[in-house]
Specification:
Order of helices and strands: EHEHEHHEHEEEEEEEEH
Helix content: 25-40%
Strand order of the largest sheet: 2-1-3-4-12-11-10
Distance between the termini: 20 Å
CATH topology: Rossmann fold
CATH class: Alpha Beta
Number of helices: 6
CATH architecture: 3-Layer(aba) Sandwich
CATH superfamily: Class I glutamine amidotransferase (GATase) domain
Number of domains: 1
Strand content: 25-35%
Shape: globular
Structural class: alpha/beta
Bound molecules: glutamine
């Protein structure tokens, strides 16, 4: 990963005292909290503006992207979340989370946060890959391929501006990094491989310095 050039997962310790929020409106929240705990980081559920104010980074989990924008509106989180992300707070979206962070969703007018300079295609890999695990080569990630768990996953159709694709499956982008933002089509929280959670924690550490 390009960001890893300055923050390699193996070389930098994660700063103590970090609070990482997991957006807890729907989706696989508990799995992310468990992964954060396994990384010895404090993970907190985020449902309110007050909770959003206390965190140093945010994970938007997998779930159903057509309803999440309405939920963000209803819980009055959309504007404060955008403000914090634009001010540099690290945000990582997994699967649905990446869709909701994208600027464009192919063939759809569903509202998004418009943070990542990417166009995504939902449920893109077709039936044979509706739910599967694929070994992924990820730019800058040392060691063995990462076990990519895909569940009705989006792919990245195109990327522009500062968005940089870090991993491909079948020639399609499945991981993106853009300054303080990260998106994965797959679900690292459903594996016991903590490398991407640790990588995100380093982005959070770096942003706090
Ligand atoms: N297919 C879902 C959507 O488009 C995302 C699936 C997931 O997050 N696992 O919203």
């Amino acid at each position: 990963m390009p960001a890893a050039k300055s923050a390699k997962t193996t070389e930098h310790a994660v700063k103590p005292g970090l609070r990482v929020g997991v957006l807890a409106l729907q989706g696989d929240v508990e799995e992310h909290l468990a992964a954060l705990a396994a990384c010895k980081a404090e993970g907190v559920r985020v449902k309110t503006v007050e909770e959003l104010e206390t965190i140093d980074g945010l994970i938007i989990p997998g779930g159903e992207s057509t309803t999440i924008a309405n939920l963000l509106e209803r819980f009055k989180l959309q504007k404060p979340l955008l403000e914090r992300a634009k001010a540099g707070m690290p945000v990582w979206g997994t699967c649905m989370g990446m869709i909701v962070m994208a600027e464009k969703v192919a063939g759809s007018k569903q509202p998004t946060l418009g943070l990542l300079h990417i166009e995504v295609k939902r449920n893109a890999f077709g039936r044979q890959i509706e739910s599967t695990e694929e070994p992924l080569e990820i730019e800058g990630l040392d060691g063995k391929p990462f076990p990519g768990v895909f569940i009705r996953a989006p792919w990245i159709e195109s990327a522009w501006g500062g968005a940089h694709i870090l991993s491909f499956l079948e020639g399609k982008g499945v991981m993106v990094w853009q300054r303080n933002l990260l998106g994965t089509s797959f679900h690292p929280e459903l594996t016991d491989d903590l490398r991407i959670h640790k990588y995100f924690l380093q982005m959070v550490s770096a942003a706090k310095q």
